[in-house]
Amino acid sequence: MIRDITLGQYYPEYSRIHKLDPRLKIIVTLVYIVSLFLIEDFAGYAIALVSMGAVIALSKVPLRFMLRGLKPIILIIVFTFTLNMLMTKGTILWEWGFFRITKEGLYNAIFMAARLIFLIVGSSVLTLTTKPIKLTDGIESLLKPFRRFGLPAHELAMMMTIALRFIPTLLEETDKIMKAQQARGADFETGGLLRRAKALVPLLVPLFVGAFRIAQDLAMAMEARCYRGGEGRTKLNMLKFRRRDALAIGFTALYLSGIVAERILL
Amino acid sequence: MSIRVEHLTHIYNKGLAYETKAVDDVGFTVEDGEFIGIIGHTGSGKSTLIQHLNGILKPESGRIFVGDVEITAKNIKMNQIRKRVGLVFQYPEYQLFEATVRSDVAFGPGNLGLPEDEIEDRVREALRLVGLDFSTYADRSPFELSGGQKRRVAIAGVIAMRPEVLILDEPTAGLDPKAHGDILRMVRSVRDRTSGIVILVSHNMSDVAEMADRVFVMDRGRLVRAAAPAEVFAEADFLRSIGLDVPPATRMANTLMGEGFAPDRTILTLGEMADFLAGRLGGRA
Hints:
Chain A is mainly α. Chain A has helices at 16-19, 22-38, 42-59, 63-68, 74-87, 103-129, 132-143, 153-183, 193-199, 201-224, 243-265; strands at 92-96, 99-102.
């Protein structure tokens, strides 16, 4: 169950999408997210679906992995779907007591649910095809211009790198502690809310103690290797803009104009 | 009580690209009162195997019987098994969480739903068995103790549940020689006290050779040997081929054999080696 979280989980593969410049991938993902809010009807979604399908196919990541990111938000999708369906006024399709499904409601519900799904899967493409380390490299590079306004770009990126790096470590730690407490008869799965919350204490205390221990070790290791922030720091892997990145920009522009044209024309 | 394992297989990340068979068709029986040592290289499946014995992990296939209860059956009450099979994980000191040693050790018995005075008795007994003085340590925070002491508190937390089977996963890893000896003495005294099954997973060949009635050897998820220490450690070349070795005393004996001083039986411990040498030199150990 802990292993279901896709966030920050990279799927190793050698595809054209994987090789793209991370800065570009971040921008394209942002463009894609914005474009989803420009779409007003299902014809627009068709364009979004085809483009995303093409990118997923190019990325060689199994569709299963892409959709796995939806699991944790399935409740939210169902919730918005139901709310939209029941709360919109319009032509009544079906009525029972004060429950009322309208044509407009159903349309809205499907529309909103589709937008959520596109949002999540779209951003999963970014995290699944980009190594966390490259992702933060990209973010750092994109944030650099804001440094003159006092934004600590390098420090932010380093914090993100470390956070991403330690997600699996902490998950593993959680798994270990959970097992150890279960061996002592702890029960995390049954009982009411209060009981369950109390049952988490034997898990959370060791986890926090462990996190501080890991943080201290890491800080020591970084100091031992003379880490002193981003000033004058060079990179092992320089980000380079290549021909395939230019191609990607072309496709993105094409996609965006498709979305805009569809909105104006239809 | 005995433990019987039949055709146990466990697969990690099933269906993914990085699927691995951690335990592969393992079967064995452990008789009541036996002391079993499990050895194997890192990643050979020792830890995965023992986590099945108290139902922490569910196997892909295969069955496990503890006494006459099949713990791999559906609708089995896990607490009933965990009461009978105590499992001490690697680096168990990282599971400590309570404000005092007393309440941490009481966590396990408390989960069994025992009455207060019974829990108190068990905490006292468990702390005594691991060699910590009750009046000195009971009300201290476990986080201010030394590494070796923390580990003893953690082990006491499992012993306090009075399991009939005690499984320890590398209980001496990362300890200094004195703490190492203390933990092993403690394991021995617990066994003398409870006369139940003890299963010790270890990378230390001497410890296993000295303490175990039988040694299980794991290699890449398979149980490749299950025999008395003398028999297992007689196959030095085989053990080396799977990333293990024989105890230092046995290695010395094998070297002596090459030089023409043949011991008449497999030597496992330093004590046996001393006796052998003393006999050869015409004196007494």
